[in-house]
Amino acid sequence: MSGHVGDLNEKQAKALQKFKEAVSDLLCPEQDDFYLLRWLRARNFDLKKSELMFRNHIEWRKKVSADKILQDYSEPEVLKKYFTGGLHGFSKDGSPIWIDPFGNIDLKGLLRSAKKSDAVLSKVYILEKLYSVMFKEQTQKVGSRVDQVVVIYDLENCSRRHLWKPGLDCFCEIVAMVEDNYPETLKIAFVINAPRIFPVIFHLVKPFLAEETAKKIHIFGSNYKDELYKYIDKDQLPSHWGGTSVDPDGDPKCSSKICPGGIVPKEYYRKYDLEAENLTSVEVGRGSSLQLDYTVKVPNCIIRWQFSTEGFDIGFGIYRRTKDSRQKAGDMEEVFPSQRVNSHLILEDGSIVCSKAGTYIIRFDNTYSWTRSKTIRYLIEVLEPEDGYSIPGSSSSQSLSSQN
């Protein structure tokens, strides 16, 4: 049985009754069986886990003032203009559709311009609007319960810049917030125009997804439109994604409802960066270098870095050992040419795809400085692709549940 109202087995029906009794001190009149079953399904009808999840949610609502957010929250201008995505149209069964051209998002620009807490709260605002307004309106309109959303993530233009750690951490925090406090809100999700680095991105996001959520996500290359048409009529889709809807000015992406993202102008940047926190600190002596070894177990892993120096520049390069024994930089395979960087002026960050397995050397070079040692603060990570996952072709799709 599905665990939804009208489709419960005997065990599920008993669990629902016991759950009502266990959380009766917290319930409001509008929290009906449809609502309560979301929490039970999210924890596979485990009463103790479902009750803990629900009680944690009530405490979380108090902390973020979720009950007042529609009246009190004011979204920062930079998020309104550059935080991708928006609600547009309805699926064939009446579910609202969220379309997010995530490949165009400037994560670094957004988090250098707005607080992470505001980025999270902006999503809380949208979810509260869904539950308080749109779901209720659609339920009355279609004559049956509507309490889930269809999501389309367009990853066109997605690249290694989306692996910037503070930005990806913020995205994962939003995913975790939704899973913990709005369970079973996703009806089905389509990830379209998936790039070659998608397995790495998914490997980082997957730990924050519930197993049932992952089963609802389907991955496509560029040939996705026929699949969308199974769930969405063309007049409910913007023309850019295969539908017939356009803005009054003819915009095929319907940017009046769906924020298209783009590079955040530096005028929005705050005067400081938060991403330099919690980095390892080490000193590189004058006339010397620091070499850090990292093991890449399989091809197509990504090495991601960010670092800063205090007061002066430093040389930075990446090499791959060609022998088991230690080698000098000049004897190794150069994969990221060494160059002096002004990491004392701005946090350096970047990433490379490692086409080969092996031992990679991150080298901080201070050999050119005979009078000054350099203090470095760094974070370096090796990101592996999701096990067994291959990039879907342009004419095929793949459910993430096959990777569980």
Automatic annotation (TrEMBL):
Domain CRAL-TRIO span(s) in chain numbering: 75-249
Cellular component terms (Gene Ontology): cytoplasm
UniProt cross-references to InterPro entries, sorted A to Z: CRAL-TRIO_dom, CRAL-TRIO_dom_sf, CRAL/TRIO_N_dom, CRAL/TRIO_N_dom_sf, Ctg-1-like_C, GOLD_dom, GOLD_dom_sf, SEC14/CRAL-TRIO_domain
Cited Gene3D superfamilies: CRAL-TRIO lipid binding domain (3.40.525.10), GOLD domain (2.60.120.680)
Pfam families the UniProt entry points to: CRAL_TRIO, F28H7_8_C
Annotated ranges, domain GOLD: 265-382
Protein name as it appears in the record: SEC14-like protein 2
Organism: Mytilus galloprovincialis (Mediterranean mussel)
